[in-house]
Predict the 3D structure of the following.
Amino acid sequence: MKCNNLVKFLCLCLVMFFIGLPSTFALTLQEKAKYAKFLTGYASELSPQEKEKIAKALIESATGLSSQEKAKYAKFLSGSSREFTCQEREKYSNIFIETALMIPLPEKPKYANLPGVQHLKKVKPNGDFLYVVKLGTLVPEGVGWAALIKTIINPGILKVTSGLLYLNWYYGGTMGDDQDILAKMRNGQLQGGGFSGQGMLLACPEMALMELPFMFENYGEIEYIYAKLRPRINLWFEKHGYHLVLLAEQDFDQIYSTKLPIKTPDDFKNSRFLTWYGMVEEKVLKAAGASPLPIRVPEVAASIRTSVCDAFISPSIWAVGTQMYTVMKYLNPMRIRYSPAGGVITMQTWNLLPEEA
């Protein structure tokens, strides 16, 4: 840990040394993309010389910053932004995107005939073109994640790629549940998806590590583990044929019931729990004394409303999104497990897209 901090400090010193000197380096989009991966934790293979060169050029390209702001931007580019406020992180992230990751519009024509992805290509009436990547998700259009996708992610990707890439999302389970979406990704009907904890586990069984009951008490603990394990988690997904684009928060799961306030082992025995999440959830419920009934996600609401089952475990956002909160009478707010969510794309698609995009 001390060695890592020392390396970061030395890199920061090198960056600061070059602030204000005339620029002598021209960066390629590939170099900028590689640095973006370093900043987001996807890769740490940059040499000190690469960090020095790229960070120096990026700082010089960020015009209009005071010396103090450049010093902060240098710290951001060193990968040390934990002590920044949310507003500062957003500010320097936007500077990085605007000055580093934009594919210049004149360069767009060279991507017109990318090998292997012509099935994704759409030509507009004016002759312009784009590549449409199709993704499915259980998220209803009215839930916060969908709003982020529509207002930030999709417009942002279109902007930085000069209209080269567009994400076409199928919301609200129109492509089926997580299991169906993964099947459609395998047969090429979809290229990616936004997944609940169940989907993350189906795509990458090793993610069960993050979902063990009572493993975490707060988000601080989760972020600490993610910071240590993220490169390894990326490799887990790649081994199964997927590229993990985003690790998102789904929430801590709670216990909901229409029949009993679930407080004791006897309450588990006397309730009809459904299970939709997978093997880990089923084993947890059995260990608590329940006899869980496996139910596919599209059938959960009907199973509860018709009293086939009367209790389940879920994050609050799911209970709200499916409107199950309208029929639930009891809630045990105990944080029984952490449930990750994420954005995943097939490795086949990821490898076909240009690295700078």
Observations:
- The chain has three domains: 2-101, 108-244+342-352, 252-341.
- Residues 5-25 have pLDDT under 50 and may be disordered.
